[in-house]
Give the backbone structure.
Amino acid sequence: MAEASASIYLDYAASTPVDPRVADLMAGLLRSSGEHGNPSSTHALGRRATARIAAAAEQLGALLNTEPARLTWTSGATESDNLAILGAARLAQHRGRHLITMRTEHKAVTDAFGRLQREGFEVTWLDPGSDGRLGLAGLEAAFRAETQLVSVMHVNNETGVIQDIAAIGALCRARGVLFHVDAAQSVGKLPLDLSELPVDLLSMTAHKIYGPKGIGALYVADRPDVAVEALLYGGGQQRGLRPGTLPTHQIAGFGLAAEIARESMQADLERITRLRDRLWDGIRDLPGIHVNGSRDAGFAGILNVSIEDVEGESLLLALEPLCVATGSACNSTNAEPSYVLRALGRSDALAQSAIRFSFGRQTTRGEIDAAIERYRLAVGRLRALAPERAA
Amino acid sequence: MSADPYSARVRTLFEHPAHAGSLEQGPQVLIEDQGVRIALAARAEDGRIRALRFRAYGCPHVVAAAEALCERLEGRPVTDLETFEAAQLVRELPVPAEKTGRILVIEDAARSLGKTLRGNSGS
């Protein structure tokens, strides 16, 4: 516990702390004698649980400006991505077996596409520009008559780069191609109006917006050609699309987190923008520092920087007690440079030195100032420790 | 679900590398391999290592191993450099198996420095 209290948490893109109001609601539901009914049961307690879930769907639907009936509860964004991509591609393979995505997608997407490749689907992997954005001309050139699905994330989880999903969706819709968006990093943080956006499938999760882990949702647009087939089989819940007993307390927590996000989104965004700019202003003069992605086209909640001549794993350790993410898929056994940063054209060394700072509702200016001081000290110390390269 | 990848010993050596730096006098070797860059410098008198310093670009295990090497060999006979085996550090720290190659770079540097010192002494 002492370790946790001494930490400075700047890893909100990985997960957010549960909002106390959400935690209180969930704890109450777990404790209460009247909320343990199975939502599939028709008796009074079952109906109470069903009402709780319906209310949560209303809250999430209001955040996204969509009908609650368009939302299917899942265990999180990974399951939503899998359900959308595998479920849509397999169901609609009679329309074609060509799929398009980007190399910078989350593993939950790239691995799902990899699975489909092994099933005989053909996948076009698009590279971003050096700013991380998808060029629309490249997407247009990739379309084929047999293309049936495109998947592009809204906000990149490593760099914060925002893709123009309205424009991408319009291109897809003009060709009758399904469009899936992994919005795990943007739901509740950026405005998303699903009544306007040409998006067919959208994945989201609660734990990035101060809700609980273990609950997410998939939006499926109400259009005749948009459908997915189930990955699980069981009790027929959620129209058979995602069977299994619904976790009332998790869903209620997600719903409240969505409602809070809707109310505080603008203020949150303005605040984290100031914090992001303060951090960057505090380190931007360090020689050899680079922003990964684009600050102009990036979500303010994420700042990913690489620095020359500093080894990434040592930097991460020297930054303690900051809780940040490295740019590599790094743990002690895997120091592979990030495939996302490599796709942006970063060298292995620069990709490996990347640090992702991500901010949230509880981040303070004092924490940002501490992060600036710690980063500058760590870089200076590690550079002083390193020998000159051989001539 | 990740355990701390660093032992207390690695953390201590990484955070307080008392032998980091260089020497004004004495030979120095520099080896770069496996994404690691190691410089070792020594001052020897009467066949013994009187001072041993390192500089390192590498992961925390590399920095800790270089510091541990200096700690271990300072004051020892120069010949110990040439017979030094990285396996000692791999066990002591410990170093995960997939990083053993990086620690071998330190062994190479130690042996190279030992050879240089022997050459300088004319033996």
About this structure: The first helix of chain B runs from residue 8 to 15. The interface with chain A takes residues 2, 5-6, 11, 14, 17, 20, 30, 32, 35, 37-39, 55-60, 63, 96, 98 of chain B (CB under 8 Å).
